[in-house]
Design goal:
This protein is of the alpha/beta class. The chain is built from 20 helices and 18 strands. It has two domains: 198 residues, 2-enoyl-CoA Hydratase, Chain A, domain 1; 198 residues, 2-enoyl-CoA Hydratase, Chain A, domain 1 (Alpha-Beta Complex), CATH 3.90.226.10. The longest helix is centred in the N-terminal third of the chain and has 16 residues.
């Protein structure tokens, strides 16, 4: 006697699960330009590595003889896989099964995936398409009562933000819990024309007087530019590649450090373009991304959040093979001034670095906080001091490269000055409590007006002030620790990256990262 019959029944149910929402709904999914849930998992994970858990969970109907008549799989696929050769946990919504709306099994599977990732210390990737576990009005037909809302498994969602890398890919309309799961991640991506994110969809918005479609309510023009998601991809394939690349820079959990991945870029490489990268005219902007790319390992810079908080550039890179978090002022947008969105972006990126023990490289060009009514209405002062707090609270090794401006409170947040400074200043550096431009006439107004040759006296004062701006004056008092040839930046960063490994601490941070 054997158990072959039961194993055959298991295989039959698994085959039913693989039918997902049925041929018609799968065809509809394909016609809308979307992969189905199993195609998505296969495209994301290393070939053949996905081990599904709970495949035969779902809703079954039995006949009078207690034999299975029909089976509909849960709209939620979970399991373990390899990504870049390393273990990861996968959650994936199946939109073909009632639009991805929840059933009893989905809450159990969601919590299982989140908890397994947490306790087994491996990254979690969510492929989100639909409500992602949220309820539906039609469910009231089977359970005719309302309930006080709760979100089972959310305690693990919160815990994972402080323990393992979490990536969320929005691959269709994401509402309710689906939208919340997108936001509760370290890195998130939308797909142009395919995904939208909102608390509730157009019918609910219409009830409050807003007649909009899905794209107008939560498309990439909104959520790709407000910080709800970090990046926008042009296809699902690109979204999967972005997820894989992001994870390649991070450790599996806070209990490790990121793996070293060298690509043969010499540590003594000196880029001659850097000596002329910054214009002598302080009013002329330049391309900071070129400077970043010239200093890190060739081809390793992975920008995050390019479409929002545009006065700051954030991303991940490698220096001599070591993973680092990069922050860089962008003079091409409001001269690099810190707006409210810039401050939010700085906070998130510094917290990411602190959570996963990534040394920070800050290419500094900051004229201060953005000025004006618009920015005051946005609360730039409050968000600004929160960004400063994030910088001061970070305990990871930090190296600042002062490329040009550093003024005021925001300029002072280039690093925590109470910790051992590793800071290199380019000869183009220009710093102070406030820019001298425009302030000279006001400060010396009486003297200039009383002078027999006002224009001559103004020119003399300007020349004197210009001499004071020399970074060599600052270096004389050891306020600028080292003024360097810009071409030496990469060799010095490679030396620092090696030293930084000795100062890294693993384990929980003093504070858990919030979305």
């Amino acid at each position: 006697m054997s158990w072959e019959d039961e194993i055959a029944e298991k295989r039959r149910r698994e085959a039913m699960a693989e039918e997902m929402g049925g041929a018609d709904r799968l065809a509809r999914q394909k016609a809308s330009g979307k992969l189905n849930v199993r195609e998505r998992v296969a495209a994301l994970c290393d070939p053949g590595s996905f081990h599904e858990v709970g495949k035969i969970a779902g809703q079954a109907r039995y006949g009078k003889d207690n034999q299975l008549e029909s089976f509909r799989a849960s709209p939620f696929v979970v399991g373990r896989a390899l990504i870049n050769g390393k273990p990861a946990m996968i959650q994936a919504d199946d939109f073909t099964v009632r639009g991805g709306a929840g059933d009893a099994a989905i809450w159990q599977k969601l919590a299982h995936a989140e908890q397994t990732a947490n306790e087994y210390r491996m990254p979690l990737v969510r492929l989100i398409d639909g409500t992602g576990g949220g309820g539906s009005v039609k469910m009231l037909e089977k359970d005719p009562r309302t309930y006080i809302p709760q979100t089972p498994g959310w305690e693990w969602v919160v815990a994972n933000m402080a323990s393992v890398p979490v990536v969320s890919l929005a691959l269709g309309p994401c509402a309710g819990l689906g939208a919340g799961r997108v936001a509760a991640s370290h890195y998130s991506v939308m797909v142009q024309g395919l995904s939208q994110i909102f608390v509730a969809g157009p019918p609910v918005a219409k009830a409050i007087g807003e007649d909009v479609d899905k794209e107008q309510l939560g498309g990439v023009e909104i959520n790709g530019r407000n910080g709800v998601v970090d990046d926008v991809a042009q296809s699902e394939a690109e979204a999967f590649e972005k997820a894989r690349r992001f994870l390649s820079y991070l450790p599996a959990s806070i209990h490790e450090t990121a793996a070293r991945v060298q690509n043969g870029d010499p540590i003594d490489r000196r880029d001659d373009t850097l000596i002329r990268a910054v214009p002598r005219d302080r009013r002329v902007p330049y391309k900071m991304r070129r400077i970043v790319e010239a200093c890190v390992d060739a081809g390793s810079f992975f920008e995050i959040g390019a479409n929002w908080g545009r006065g700051i550039i954030t991303g991940l890179a490698r220096i001599d093979g070591y993973s680092v978090a990069v922050i860089a002022g962008d003079p091409m947008f409001l001269a690099g001034a810190w707006t409210a969105d810039v401050c939010r972006k700085v906070i998130k990126h510094v917290d990411l670095a602190q959570t996963f023990h990534l040394p920070v490289v800050h290419f500094v060009d900051c004229p201060g906080f953005a000025v004006g009514v618009k920015h005051e209405r946005a609360g730039v002062v409050k968000l600004g001091v929160q960004a400063m707090a994030a910088v001061y609270q970070a305990r990871v090794p930090w190296c600042s490269i002062v490329v040009r401006q550093a003024f005021g409170l925001a300029g002072s947040a280039m690093m925590n000055p109470t910790r051992a400074k590793v800071r290199y200043c380019w000869p183009s550096g220009d710093w102070g409590s406030l820019p001298l431009d425009g302030g000279i006439e006001a400060a010396y107004k009486s003297e200039i007006e009383a002078h027999p040759e006002p224009e001559k006296r103004l020119a003399e004062i300007r020349a004197w002030a210009e001499a004071l701006r020399s970074p060599f004056r600052t270096a004389e008092a050891f306020y600028a620790e080292e003024i360097i040839d810009p071409r030496d930046t990469r060799p010095l960063l490679c030396e620092w990256a090696q030293l930084a490994q000795c100062a890294l601490e693993t384990g929980p941070s003093a504070f858990g990262m919030r979305p």
